[in-house]
Amino acid sequence: MLTYRLLKNHAGILLIGDSTSLRWLHEVVHGVNERSPLVGDKEGMFLGLAYDARKAYERQREIIQPPAHYEEMGIRYGIQLLWPVLLLQQRTLWPSLTYLDHSAKTQAVAYALEAIIEEALQQDFTTQGKDAIALWQRFNPAQLDVFDKLQSRGAIFCSWTKAERKRNFLQLLTSFDPMYDSNHMFRLQRGERNLLSPGELELWASAEWPDTRWSTATSGEPQATPYHPCLEIWPKTISQGLQMAANTQTRVSGPPQGVAGCQRIVEELGAGVSCARRPSRASPNAARVTTY
Questions:
Q1: Domain residues of the chain, as ranges?
Q2: In this predicted model, what pLDDT tens digit does every residue of 186-235 receive, in sequence order?
Q3: Which of 58, 69, 73, 76 is most buried (CB neighbours < 10 A)?
Q4: CA 241 from chain center: how many Å?
Q5: Which residue in 84, 85, 75 sits closest to 52, CA to CA?
Q6: For residue 264, what pLDDT band results from cuts at 50, 70 and 90?
């Protein structure tokens, strides 16, 4: 049986299943990838879902132990999936089946994945959940450049903060529409807000995807990762700071540690970075930390 947990910061879901469920998922996606006329790139992003499913049941992804009070559940395995990627992968599955002979097993996997996404979107985006489901179900995998668009949409999605993802998620889904660029100016004139500029999306088209900060959320509000202001300094400044930290051992009790140590480095280098401020968006040239 497939189930899920939400990832932090509205990043996506941890898709969870036992070995049999994930083998079924791998088999179905792999078969559809090979036979579907809608999948142009046979080694592209759609096949990535089958690859991750295989890596999961081979114990190369997250391994989830059963609860102590319910050991009969057995070991399960998890795959971290970003929202834009998962939504497009699933929408490629159903339309492809209209062209193919398929079994009850294939339908069972497709329905299970669709049910998980519907429930997870509702849980993650609450009042926007129904609108997100409607926009996702309008994705057209027959559109020739739809997976090309995923490159820029995925990159900008990864760069957003938690608040930006929640605020802009519906517009991100809308931007997959083939008429989005043509209608953008008209929608601006009509007074719509939070629109993604086609020019901005183009800038992200060749960018690597930044770190998604997507560790699994627990019940309640997830705890934020401790923030160090050194993370905001340009790489050259970081290098200078680390060198200075090593040199300070002769005049202080030890090298700078934690937030206080980083703050001292920042102050002495004159970087002017505040602990209370984070950049609203990562640079399109930022190196990808987490690869999908």
A1: 3-203, 229-269
A2: 888 888 887 899 999 999 998 999 888 776 554 443 333 333 333 333 34
A3: 76
A4: 31
A5: 85
A6: very low
